[in-house]
């Protein structure tokens, strides 16, 4: 209980004005109303501090503020000042970033971001949106060289349980198309409840918030210490297509023919019925078989795919798009890689994709490759990792304008 002569500064930070006054002797004095700055959070806070200075000494502050406020006083969302949103995320990152790091907002410009280490950090509002993020996405989609030579990681936080990975996957695809590479397992995401960190917290003997902070610290350390990978010398191509009719394999033949002779190529075809999908063994059982370089189900995955993945420097996924999704066999293959992933990470292996669509939607499969093999299974994502083409009739891919030059250019990128 405050005494009657206590001086309490009160502020109502609204969208158009800031109302301020001093509460003392059970009455308001010095009421004042000023326009709310809308240029940046810094300008807003400077205005607030100036108002507090003019009130003189006080014993406490009471604040009502614009935006959505969390239980710990953080601004979860502000639909005008993007840097007012996500203040805790910024506060979390600043002490973890390497010396000399610069924090930049998308509205400050996207220039001079080539040949850098980049950490994308996005705080979503309760609807799973962030207006500044959409502005950045527009800039990324508008240039194929904006981030040339850069390598990046991603942090996304949400108020609810949805959209964090969806936003991250869209952003990684757009940034990759703009010339940016991504670490293996580049994403640290935190849903509003942090339930997605429950397992990591249990393994580490900490709470979910600490597990999240540790994951952010580990990602930043890997990004700071990243070094370019050695040249590609062994390529593994995985497919589930019929050789005599596949436009996807026809595209791969053009790419393969343009690869330098010093690159060895291995191909594994996964036809119907040869790859049982993962049945969800326990973590302990999966780890046990993974340590032996095996899987409970055996078959071509253990006999051919696992050894080939270990040998390769680059994995090429050859994906025919029929229903806006990876084929069943390729999906099963990705799922079954979990046993091998339990034993080793694939940070030093590049991921490439060739996607041929009958109509449209090839970018949907590219995003699936990103989330399954880059974000989950830890393959490194080179810039412009995926070649996307559209060809419907049998053999029509070979008649696309400039397709041989396009395939040769992609082969050169693979060999870099």
Report the mean per-residue pLDDT as an integer. 84
Radius of gyration: 26 Å
Strand order of the largest sheet: 11-10-12-13-14
How do the helices and strands follow one another from N- to C-terminus?
A: EEEHEEEHEHEHEHHEHEHHEHHEHEH
| Separate helix tally | 13
Highlighted features:
13 helices, 416 residues, alpha/beta
What are the SSEs and their pairings?
Layout: E1 8-13, E2 17-24, E3 27-35, H1 41-54, E4 60-65, E5 68-69, E6 75-77, H2 87-93, E7 117-123, H3 131-141, E8 151-157, H4 164-177, E9 181-190, H5 198-204, H6 208-225, E10 234-239, H7 247-258, E11 264-269, H8 283-291, H9 300-311, E12 314-321, H10 328-336, H11 338-343, E13 350-357, H12 362-376, E14 386-390, H13 403-415
Parallel strand pairs: 1-4, 7-8, 8-9, 10-11, 10-12, 12-13, 13-14
Antiparallel strand pairs: 1-2, 2-3, 5-6
Helix pairs in contact: 4-12, 5-6, 7-13
Fold and architecture overview:
This protein is of the alpha/beta class. Helices cover 35% and strands 22% of the residues. It contains 13 helices and 14 strands. Helix 12 links the parallel strand 13 and strand 14. Helix 4 packs across helix 12, helix 5 crosses helix 6 and helix 7 crosses helix 13. The termini are far apart.
């Amino acid at each position: 209980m405050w005494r009657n002569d206590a001086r309490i500064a009160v502020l109502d930070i609204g969208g158009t004005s800031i109302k301020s006054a001093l509460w003392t002797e059970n009455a308001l004095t010095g009421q004042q109303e000023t326009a709310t700055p809308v240029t940046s959070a810094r300008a807003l806070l400077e205005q607030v501090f100036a108002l507090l200075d003019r009130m003189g000494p006080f014993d406490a502050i009471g604040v009502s503020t614009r935006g959505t406020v969390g239980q710990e006083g953080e601004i979860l969302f502000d639909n005008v000042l993007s840097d007012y949103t996500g203040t805790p995320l910024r506060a979390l990152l600043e002490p973890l970033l390497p010396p000399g790091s610069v924090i930049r907002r998308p509205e400050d410009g996207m220039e001079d971001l080539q040949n850098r280490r980049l950490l994308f950090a996005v705080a979503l509002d309760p609807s799973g949106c962030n207006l500044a993020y959409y502005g950045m996405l527009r800039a990324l989609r508008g240039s194929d060289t904006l981030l040339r030579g850069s390598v990046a990681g991603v942090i996304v936080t949400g108020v609810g349980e949805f959209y964090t990975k969806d936003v991250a996957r869209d952003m990684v695809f757009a940034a990759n198309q703009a010339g940016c590479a991504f670490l293996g397992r580049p994403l640290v995401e935190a849903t509003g409840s942090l339930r997605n960190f429950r397992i990591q917290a249990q393994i580490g003997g900490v709470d979910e918030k600490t597990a999240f902070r540790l994951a952010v610290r580990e990602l930043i350390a890997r990004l700071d210490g990243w070094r370019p990978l050695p040249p590609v010398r062994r390529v593994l191509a995985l497919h589930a297509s019929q050789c005599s009719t596949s436009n996807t394999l026809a595209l791969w033949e053009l790419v393969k023919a343009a690869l330098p002779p010093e690159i060895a190529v291995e191909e594994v075809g996964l036809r119907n019925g040869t790859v049982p999908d993962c049945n969800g063994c326990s973590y302990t059982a999966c780890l046990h078989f993974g340590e032996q370089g095996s899987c409970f189900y055996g078959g071509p995955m253990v006999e051919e795919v696992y050894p080939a993945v270990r040998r390769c420097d680059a994995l090429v996924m050859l994906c025919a798009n029929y229903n806006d999704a990876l084929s069943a066999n390729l999906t099963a293959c990705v799922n079954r890689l979990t046993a091998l992933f339990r034993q080793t990470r694939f940070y030093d292996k590049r991921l490439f994709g060739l996607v041929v669509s009958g109509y449209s939607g090839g970018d949907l499969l590219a995003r699936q490759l990103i989330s399954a093999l880059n974000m989950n299974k830890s393959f490194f994502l080179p810039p412009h990792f995926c070649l996307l083409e559209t060809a419907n009739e049998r053999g029509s891919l070979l008649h696309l304008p400039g397709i041989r030059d396009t395939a040769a250019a992609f082969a050169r990128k693979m060999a870099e």
